[in-house]
């Protein structure tokens, strides 16, 4: 039977953010910390886009412009334009680069503007389906409103049962809408549950992207501890105990998973690190010292039911970094499992396969 393969077709505008999906040894550019829109105290709005090879840049949309926006190129390749007289409200916009409409590649919703192509059999069939919700919460850690997606299993609304929770994190360049869309998380979970292969659970897909900081991993981990987990446990019927919490992440999300687990190992009993490693470009031993992993190995070995590393085969761009990290952790005495559930490299085909294989192992 053909498996459904979902391919994320990136718009040309979004292509400049593609290296962020890996976070492995890439060239740093001004786009990394660029805020594409900045609202000034006087109500003016600054639009910015990194387009070092562009000849012309403008901005368009259903906007009641008070005056045309003139863009100028800065020496670092960033084009900047100031809009006056916009007023309050919600506005759609896009950049026009050399005559081509370009969705804002730095918008937190950039990944959501990409088209999806479905090839083969769909996961969607005539079975009970769960509910997928967008939830907003105030992050005290990051000082603003943040969004997460939450999947609840079929029948949750009519049940009083408390459920365990999997916190499932996307990779760099994506956001909390990635697992529910190209990751097909809801469809995969629906099918596993309908076939009796999975324990009913709640799956929380937070936004692991933190705008405007060079290293978003530590602040996201703090957001998990301070805001995300407390929000979920205050608003959903969950078993608020370590044995009923799991955390997983792919690529950059795998780095965030380790930051979370090694920061507070007592909070969880399951961890998956998918196509990832400790901070690329940094000696794993140095990262292990920063996270004080040696002090936590005994607790994890004694109490965790699963600590899993996965890869998409040798073509996975995180392959060697993951080997280096596993060697370091093994040297510290950490017990873990290693799997290759698909030979699809650093791709959603690999991570969908990981979810299909690993979700049935949780909370048994």
Protein model, in words:
The chain has helices at residues 185-194, 217-235, 252-263, 284-291, 297-303, 319-331, 348-358, and strands at residues 5-9, 37-39, 45-50, 57-60, 71-73, 78-83, 94-97, 100-102, 115-119, 131-139, 144-152, 165-169, 202-206, 245-250, 270-274, 306-310, 337-339. The protein is of the alpha/beta class and 364 residues long. The chain folds into two domains: 6-113, Immunoglobulins (Immunoglobulin-like); 124-361, Alpha/Beta hydrolase fold, catalytic domain (Rossmann fold), CATH 3.40.50. The strands form four sheets. It has an eight-stranded mixed β-sheet, with helices on one face. Strands 2-3-6-5 form a four-stranded antiparallel β-sheet, with no helix packed on it. A three-stranded antiparallel β-sheet has the order 4-7-8, with no helix packed on it. Helix 2 crosses helix 3. The chain is globular.
Order of helices and strands: EEEEEEEEEEEEHEHEHEHHEHEH
Shape, please? globular
- Quickly count the domains: 2
CATH topology of the largest domain: Rossmann fold
Radius of gyration: 21 Å
Q: Which structural class do you get from the secondary structure elements?
A: alpha/beta
- Unreliable residue runs: 1-24
- Strand composition percent: 15-25%
Helix content: 10-25%
Distance between the termini: 29 Å
CATH architecture of the largest domain: 3-Layer(aba) Sandwich
Total count of strands: 17
User: Counting H and I runs of at least 4 residues, what is the number of helices?
Assistant: 7
Biggest sheet character: 8 strands, mixed
Query: Which whole number gives the mean pLDDT?
Result: 89
Instruction: Give me the side-by-side strand order of the main sheet.
Output: 10-11-13-12-14-15-16-17
Q: Would you state the CATH class of the largest domain? A: Alpha Beta
CATH superfamily of the largest domain: Alpha/Beta hydrolase fold, catalytic domain
């Amino acid at each position: 039977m053909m498996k459904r393969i979902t391919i994320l077709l990136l718009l040309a505008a979004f292509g400049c953010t593609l290296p962020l999906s890996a976070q492995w040894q890439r060239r740093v550019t001004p786009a990394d910390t660029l805020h594409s829109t900045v609202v000034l105290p006087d109500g003016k709005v600054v639009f910015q886009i990194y387009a070092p090879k562009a000849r012309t840049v403008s901005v368009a949309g259903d906007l009641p412009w008070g005056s045309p926006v003139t863009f100028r190129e800065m020496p670092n390749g960033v084009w900047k334009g100031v809009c006056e007289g916009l007023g309050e409200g919600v506005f759609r916009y896009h950049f026009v680069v050399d005559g081509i409409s370009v969705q804002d590649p730095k918008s937190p919703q950039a990944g959501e503007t990409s088209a999806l192509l479905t090839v083969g059999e769909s996961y969607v069939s005539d079975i009970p389906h769960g509910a997928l919700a967008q939830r907003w919460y105030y992050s005290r850690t990051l000082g603003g409103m943040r969004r997460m997606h939450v999947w609840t299993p079929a029948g949750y609304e009519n049940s009083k049962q408390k459920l365990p929770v999997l916190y499932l994190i996307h990779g760099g360049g994506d956001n909390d809408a990635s697992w529910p869309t190209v990751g097909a998380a809801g469809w995969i979970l629906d099918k596993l549950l309908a076939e009796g292969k999975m324990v009913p659970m709640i799956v929380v897909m937070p936004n692991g992207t933190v705008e405007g900081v060079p290293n978003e991993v530590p602040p996201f981990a703090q957001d998990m501890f301070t805001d995300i987990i407390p929000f979920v446990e205050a608003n959903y019927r969950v078993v608020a105990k370590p044995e009923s919490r799991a955390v997983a992440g792919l690529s950059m999300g795998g780095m965030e998973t380790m930051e979370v687990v090694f920061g507070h190992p007592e909070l969880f009993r399951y961890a998956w690190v998918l196509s990832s490693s400790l901070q690329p470009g940094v000696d794993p031993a140095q990262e292990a010292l920063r996270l004080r992993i040696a002090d936590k190995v005994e607790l994890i070995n004694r109490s965790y039911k699963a600590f899993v590393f996965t890869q998409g085969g040798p073509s996975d761009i995180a392959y060697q970094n993951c080997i280096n990290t596993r060697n370091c952790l093994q040297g510290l005495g950490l017990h873990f499992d290693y799997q290759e559930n698909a030979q699809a490299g650093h791709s959603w085909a690999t991570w969908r396969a990981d979810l299909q294989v690993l979700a049935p192992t949780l909370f048994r």
